Amino acid sequence: MILIVLLSWHFTVRSGRLLLSPVMRALFPGSFDPVTQGHKDILRRAALLFDEVVVCVMFNSNKTGRSPVTERLDLLCAAATDLSNVTVDSHTGGLLVDYCRRVGIDVVIRGVRGVADLDYEMPMARMNHELAGVETFFIAADPALAHISSTLVTTMSQQDPVPK
Q1: 91 noted as active-site residue
Q2: HSE of 72, CA atoms in CB hemisphere, 13 A
Q3: What's the confidence (pLDDT) of residue 118?
């Protein structure tokens, strides 16, 4: 039992004293269909803020999956190549809080591009907190990337090239 507790703490020595601090783990969930520059930016910034970030492909019943989960996982692995504290996973059955409980994560990261995203995310954040005590950490999108969405990227990729 003690070993499990010790694995979730950092040990540092400062001014001759042994200090313990908890490891801050966070989950960055999404459908990532496809992975966008905005997703990559939020992932990179989250990796700077947390000791460990798990980026996880989740099932969204409101979206029709265009790319297979394995392809999305490969793209996320490529996006996280230089981020040593990021791992990639998937959870396509059950609630986000079920995954959080199973892996011992109590912070969820959500990128928000504007008020519409926040209006969508807030009820879920409240419910995740009520169901499992999971906190939501919002990261504002880089203004240069805020117009990008997975839907927009997919629509543009399906268009015929404009003749010159």
Answers
A1: no
A2: 24
A3: 93
